[in-house]
Amino acid sequence: MAQSSPIILIIPGSFSTAQMYYSVLSSLETLSPNTPAYVSNLPSAIRNAPEPAATLADDAAHFRSIIEKLAEGGREVILVAHSYGGVVATEIAGVSKKEREAQGKKGGVVRIVYLAAHVVEESKSLQEQIGQPPNPAIAKVGEDHFIRFVNVQMIAQGTIPDMDQTIAVEFIKSMGRHSNLSFTSKATHSGWKNVPVSWILTEQDFIVAPDLQKSYIKRIEEESGQKVDLHVLATGHAPNASAPEKVAEVLVKVLALEN
Question: In this structure, is residue 179 part of a structural domain?
Fold first, then answer.
């Protein structure tokens, strides 16, 4: 039998490490102390040359392994997927509670919460869906298939416009490189078809524009036949940095839907 409260598992955005979400976990612990919540690093965001750049499949396999370990213990999981993390959450197959129950197994993913995220169509890559990587004056793809930031100030302004820019620049500087192969890998699965979906839409987002987020929501609703549970934050693309307490407040509301 599953525990009373689902586990929250955060999938970070590109270039982001787990520690960039610790403030969200801390705020959530304050608001809902009995809710277990975790975040793990994306292989595509932590590997360094000469290690091979990770693909979307590598990222999905990493989080699938974590989910399966939790599910085997009977635990229900809510995935919180930020930015590129939405592509990963969508790609993970076979771990929803619905799919596992059909196999006579317990536990599994009961909801995906997309946070300012991308949702890629099957047989497309993120790059094919949204276009080429940023201008080389902003970020550059190396011969090793890793993307590195060039203009930190411009990225800070675009990513966290709702934060003091001195602090925002330091936050961006703490990011490393990211695998371009994760952006060019083709998606093979639509995980949102098997679970209810919540969405945290960021109104001041210059990275995943609000209208683009709304188009993802519309497609999910039209293709799944289910209403997306929508929450709106007046933030930029990274509320995990600028407004972690607001993200935690939404997650508490989402938890109430599953308890």
Answer: yes
Domain that holds residue 38: 7-258
Token pair of 141 as six digits: 């793809």
CA-based Rg of the chain, rounded to a whole angstrom? Answer: 17
Q: Across residues 224-249, what is the average pLDDT? A: 98
Whether the model pTM is above 0.85: yes
pLDDT in tens, 162-221: 999 999 999 999 998 999 999 999 999 999 999 999 999 999 999 999 999 999 999 999
Share in percent of the chain as helix, strand, coil (round to 5): 45, 20, 40
pLDDT tens figures, 75-92: 999 999 999 999 999 999
Residue pLDDT, tens place only, 47-58: 988 999 999 999
Which ranges constitute the DSSP H helices of the chain? Answer: 22-31, 43-46, 56-72, 85-91, 97-102, 126-130, 152-159, 165-173, 181-184, 210-224, 239-242, 244-258
Domain contains 1: no
Contacts 24+ apart (CB under 8 A), 162-165: 162/204, 162/234, 162/235, 162/236, 162/242, 162/243, 163/236, 163/238, 163/241, 163/242
Number of domains in the chain: 1
The CATH number of whichever domain residue 92 belongs to comes to 3.40.50.1820
Asked if residues 236 and 206 have their Cβ atoms less than 8 Å apart, the reply is: yes
